[in-house]
Each structure stands twice: as structure tokens, then as C-alpha cells.
Amino acid sequence: MPVLFYYVHTVQPSEIDPLNHANNVVYVQWLQDAAVAHSAARGWPPERYLALGAGWVVRSHTIEYIHPARLGDEIVVQTWVADFKKVTSRRRYRIYRVNDGCLLAQAETLWAFVTYATGQPTRIHPEVVASFKLPEGDPPPYRPGELSLVKS
Fold this sequence. Notes:
22% of the residues lie in helices and 34% in strands. It is of the alpha+beta class. It has one domain (5-138): Hotdog Thioesterase (Thiol Ester Dehydrase, Chain A). It has a five-stranded antiparallel sheet, with helices on one face. The longest helix has 18 residues, at 24-41.
């Protein structure tokens, strides 16, 4: 089971702000989209969490913006689960421009596992934990051309 997950996206006109680059708010959407896609790829789409009656909510996001994404840029969000605690999990991300490998941003989200009916934190189900492999150390950065090796 791979540690890293790659979510590819092309920057859309609706994501561009008056300064002619991707608005900072859309980066948060890309993070969420990547996390949901990664979870689904590991057997946990939103419907499975609903059937379980428990799932993830965001506690906090931290983003460092390094270079702007522009209209039409193909970007890749490289993401992985960094840890699991009793009721929380930390996920990390790096956002790159696909063609040249320029690091655009790096981020981290602290997710809490909650019972949907009450909104209260609950222990992360062992089946969820078993679906993700944690990295040993810092995963390698994305390199141009790498996506052809990981796309399925």
C-alpha cells in the first residue's frame, strides 16, 4: 500500500482572483478534495463513513504559500497521513506545478474523528487506521514525470 497519494487538478477561471493567480481560499478546497480522494482510494468514500455513522471533520489547517498557481496550471497535491492519535489524525500536503515541479504550497490539516449524530470525538475505528500506511520519515518530493508512474 503506497504512503503517498497524488491528486491532480487544473486551475480553473473561477479559482482566479483579481491578482491573476489562484485565490488562497481554493487551496483549502484542493486540500480537502485530495484528502477525500485519498480516503476513497483506500476504501473509505464518504458513503462508507456515513454508513459507519462516524468520520472526519477539520480541526485546523495550516498553509504556507510559496509560489502562485495561475490559470490553466496543472497542479498536483501530494498528500499522506502523517499520524493517528486516539481521535485525531494529522495529514500533510505539498502542492506542486506538474510540468516543472515547482513547490507552490505546503500544508497540514488536523482532522478529528467524530460521531456524526452527536458531533462528539470518538476513537478512530481500527479498520480506518489499517487502510493507511504511515511514512517512515519525510516522504520524497514530487518530481516532474513522476505522475506517469503513479496514475492508475
